[in-house]
Amino acid sequence: MAKLKTPTLPSNPLTSPKRPGKAYGPSTPLEHGAEAGITAVDWIDERTSLSGGLRWMMFRKVPKGTNWFYTLGSATMFAFLSQAVTGVFLAMYYDPSATRAYESIQHINNDVFLGEFVHGMHKWGSSVMVILIFLHMGRTFFFGAYKYPRELNWVIGVALLVMTMTMSFSGYLLPFDQRSYWATIVGVNINGTGPLVGPYLSEFLRAGPYFGATTLSRFYAIHMLLVPGAIAALMGFHLYLVAKLGTTAPPWVRAKSPDALREQKVSDL
Amino acid sequence: MNKREKEAYLREYGVLKSQGKPFFPYAIAKDSVMAIMVMVVIITMSIVLGAELGPKADPTSTTYTPRPEWYFFFLFELLRVIKPPALVPLATIGVPTICLILLFLLPFYDRGAERRPERRPIATAAGIFTICAIGYLTYLGAAAGPPTEIDIPVPANVRSQGSAAVANFKSGEQVVAQSGCAACHKFGENGNAGPGPSLTRVGARLPAQAIQRTLINPTAPMPSFATLSEQSPKQFEQMVGFLAALK
Amino acid sequence: MTEHKESKSKYTEDRQIPGAFEGETVTRRRAMVLGGQVAGGVAAAAFALPALGFAVGPIFEKQDQPWQIVGNTGEFNPDSYVPRTITLVAGIGDAGKSTVYLRKYNPDLDTEPRDEYNSYIAISTLCMHLGCPVRFTAAAQRFICPCHGGVYDIVGKVNGGPPVRPLDRFYTRLEADRVLIGPRFSVNSELQRFSPRDPGEPLDGVGQYLYPSRPSMRKIQGT
């Protein structure tokens, strides 16, 4: 087979052309700083090509008529981020053992700087997230936004709803007060009422026939590793699909004059 | 949705999108304002309501009344209203699972092309009904007191008889509450509806003697309060007096 | 009249695949794809199965239920219940304890035959609907659950509300004049003994097969 000749390399590929209007490059310290930042970002982009994806995500158009109802999804995500961050810091003081859990939360509330505040943010943040996710679902439902081509995104959204409820449920055992304990007993027994597999499922959740030494750490692992990981992954996919398919327009908004638009496009050519 | 409707939708959407604005910064600005509002709400709640702990978990307790977090009240109430033991798995697993499957599969059985809520009467009605049902169950769940607590307003005719009668009524209420009558009978907002009849207006149906006779000689499965009448006749009297005053 | 469809030969050589060997039925590409999938599956199973087994293990571990003293014979009577605290799970302090109601066997109330394990009746305080703490109300002679409206009579049989079976019990036995309490067992509506089940799991009819007992806890053999 005949080989193609290797093209000759450009004489100096590294010098980029001068920016228009700038004869002598950066001069003030501010311009030098900006240049350094641009260089760093360029360096990363040269190796990852992330700017294309970012541009695709950020500069996609949202349709006409997009209103405040469309911020509910991102607000839910924001509440999740708040939960994730406050949760990580609570985990630094929390001790998931049946004998020490309650005392460690008391310690967070009473002794740790800003302890009760961060604990309160995590506690009430869960309620806020549940409300937001339901509102987001209501908006999607009444605007018919689950219809073609966004069916899969609805299914993922329902999975996220279920996982959010799982998070709230597994979370409120952790303070280990009376409400936590009995609500968990009832919740685990609810799983046990499923025929055939139910009894094994409830025993799996409790790690034994009774509420035992490792039940709390089991719920802790589910609450802070298993489900949040799954939520983050599914949320990423949910967002990707939103960007790919576009957010819906409110159902009563109609395109004004598609014909005029088409004519204009043709004339542009 | 058939192929033509899909095409029509995609074309319409393409036009709407092309007439729209870029996500950054227009939508991002709104999202950020909303995020600030979310954080304001969370922080305010945290500061105002705090993160109080209840008493430490005590599995040996027999006096604690377990209640879930507010967003599970509708499931809690579902368990309360479905009474027959044979239907327990339906209340715990069945109904939630069916609802969840219906929710998951929504886009696969609702395939119409129409998106405007006012032109999808069935879907919109079903959605509003579901919200109302969950809201109502949540309210009932939140209002459900323990069966050892009765809170009934003092009837006017008792109040007119003076403070001694009111005190007697109140202590009778106490005895009835602690005897667990509300486990089977309804007293106004409190108590369970069944297996016993509602006692909210029992005084209007039965005279005091009949109530006393029923308490000592009840029909099964109601327990007899004969031991109470022998051991502490004063409490028994207050109990009868309270029930007879419910008109 | 049957339409004859030309069947594909199983030999790659016959199918005109370039580079095929004689007698070869699987292409090398296909063998590599399958091999890759199997190897990946084995590697994933190598971490997933042990982890899963580790998490599921406790279900199959038999739990020790040592007998514990709850009092002297004189402390209990046949007509009313005395609450006692017992330890179900050792080593986790108060979280492993539970309350049990005890009374002496009463021939007027108890219909089940007497044996060495029921001269004292020990009734669990977990509601058999979903496990809330029931309380014995002396005035009404009833066990009453504060959650979803369960009511039980004095021997623990269901009077009303959603509970699916009578209250669970514990084996008791006498040692000199001390009362000892042992493993838990469940009863059906005729008060027959069954291996312990969780709340919400009926034992009447097909219930005992729909909700099997677990290896972690069994009733005493032959009772």
UniProtKB/TrEMBL annotation, chain A:
Keyword Transmembrane: yes
Chain intervals for the UniProt region annotation (Disordered): 1-29
Record-given protein name: Unannotated protein
Low complexity bias locations: 1-18
Pfam family, one: Cytochrome_B
CDD domains to which the protein is assigned, alphabetical: Cytochrome_b_N (cd00284)
GO molecular function, one term: oxidoreductase activity
Gene Ontology cellular component terms for the protein in this record: membrane
Ranges annotated as spanning the membrane: 68-94, 124-142, 154-174, 222-243
UniProtKB/TrEMBL annotation, chain B:
Occurrences of domain Cytochrome c (ranges): 167-247
Protein known as: Unannotated protein
Annotated keywords: Electron transport, Heme, Iron, Membrane, Metal-binding, Transmembrane, Transmembrane helix, Transport
Any Gene Ontology CC annotation: membrane
InterPro entries with a match to the protein in the record: Cyt_b/b6_C, Cyt_b/b6_C_sf, Cyt_c-like_dom, Cyt_c-like_dom_sf, Cytb/b6-like_sf
UniProt entry tagged with the keyword Hydrolase: no
TM ranges: 33-51, 86-109, 121-142
Main location class: membrane
GO molecular function terms listed in the Swiss-Prot or TrEMBL record: electron transfer activity; heme binding; metal ion binding; oxidoreductase activity
Localization of this protein: Membrane
Naturally occurring in which organism (per UniProt): freshwater metagenome
Domain Cytochrome b/b6 C-terminal region profile residue range list: 13-142
Membrane topology: Multi-pass membrane protein
PROSITE patterns referenced in this protein's UniProt entry, alphabetically: CYTB_CTER, CYTC
UniProtKB/TrEMBL annotation, chain C:
UniProt keyword annotation of Membrane present: yes
Keywords: 2Fe-2S, Disulfide bond, Iron, Iron-sulfur, Membrane, Metal-binding, Transmembrane, Transmembrane helix
TM regions (residue ranges): 38-60
Region ranges (Disordered): 1-22
GO cellular component terms listed in the entry, alphabetical order: membrane
Record-level Gene Ontology MF annotations: 2 iron, 2 sulfur cluster binding; metal ion binding
Sequence ranges of Basic and acidic residues compositional bias: 1-16
InterPro entries in alphabetical order: Rieske_2Fe-2S, Rieske_2Fe-2S_sf, Rieske_Fe-S_prot, Rieske_Fe-S_prot_C, TAT_signal
Keyword Iron appears in the UniProt entry: yes
Residue ranges annotated for the Rieske domain, each copy included: 114-181
Gene3D superfamilies: Rieske [2Fe-2S] iron-sulphur domain
A Pfam match: Rieske
Cofactor(s) needed for function: [2Fe-2S] cluster
Protein name as it appears in the record: Unannotated protein
UniProt source species: freshwater metagenome
Phylogenetic classification of the source organism: unclassified sequences, metagenomes, ecological metagenomes
